[in-house]
Write a structure and sequence with these properties.
Number of strands: 7
Bound molecules: 5-O-phosphono-beta-D-ribofuranosylamine
Helix content: 25-40%
Strand content: 15-25%
Structural class: alpha/beta
Shape: globular
Radius of gyration: 16 Å
Distance between the termini: 15 Å
């Protein structure tokens, strides 16, 4: 059970596996006066994730987790979350699936962003698949995390038009720009209601 501690800002951890553009924009937003949250911790399953340098540069605590053994990895993460008084988890490009056990500990307190219009195109390679299927629109979805992959309660969804000349890369870039702008705002809204 996670208890929200009565104070001004909610302590959040951001889980990443790579580039960290969302981490960067979320952290930047967290410094605003209107922000309801602090980024206290970055968790990465990849030692050389570019997002780690964002954590270092901004003096955010970070923890690199070896995922060879999922149970042990999650035990270490939970330990670290506990030590840092983390109340809410933000997934931002985290490429590991959290166990039922883990999700239960943070029920309705884990948020994710997925670059498709869920429930369509869950999982990996969304941009390749949307273009291959000649979809007219793609987009992104911000949702709470439950036990099933990319299936928790949808908080918001935004359509992005697929252009004739789009490649998976160009589409990904356009969607990511939107994600970076909107994700921090949505997180803030969700946390205002807690
Ligand atoms: C984003 O496209 C997000 O939707 C997906 O992973 C990507 C993470 O990008 N879940 P970044 O590491 O935040 O730049």
């Amino acid at each position: 059970m996670v208890k929200l501690i009565g104070k001004n800002k909610i302590n959040c951890a951001v889980f990443i596996s790579g580039r960290g553009s969302n981490l960067k924009s979320i952290f930047k937003f967290s410094k605003k006066k209107s922000s309801k949250f602090n980024i206290k911790l970055v968790v990465s399953n990849k030692k050389f994730a570019a997002g780690i340098s964002i954590a270092k540069k901004n003096k955010i605590n970070f923890k690199i987790i070896n995922y060879k053994n999922i149970k042990e990895a999650e035990r270490q993460i939970l330990n670290c979350l506990n030590k840092n008084n983390i109340e809410f988890i933000i997934l931002a490009g985290f490429m590991k699936i959290l166990s039922k056990y883990f999700i239960k500990k943070f029920r309705n307190k884990i948020i994710n962003i997925h670059p498709s219009l869920l429930p369509k195109y869950k999982g990996l390679n969304t941009h390749e698949r949307t273009i291959r299927n000649k979809e007219k629109f793609s987009g992104y979805t911000i949702h709470l995390v439950n036990e099933k992959l990319d299936s928790g309660k949808i908080i918001m969804q935004k359509k992005v038009k697929i252009l004739n000349l789009d490649t998976p890369d160009s589409l990904a870039k356009r969607i990511l720009k939107e994600e970076n702008r909107i994700y921090p705002k949505v997180i803030n809204k969700v946390l205002s209601r807690i």
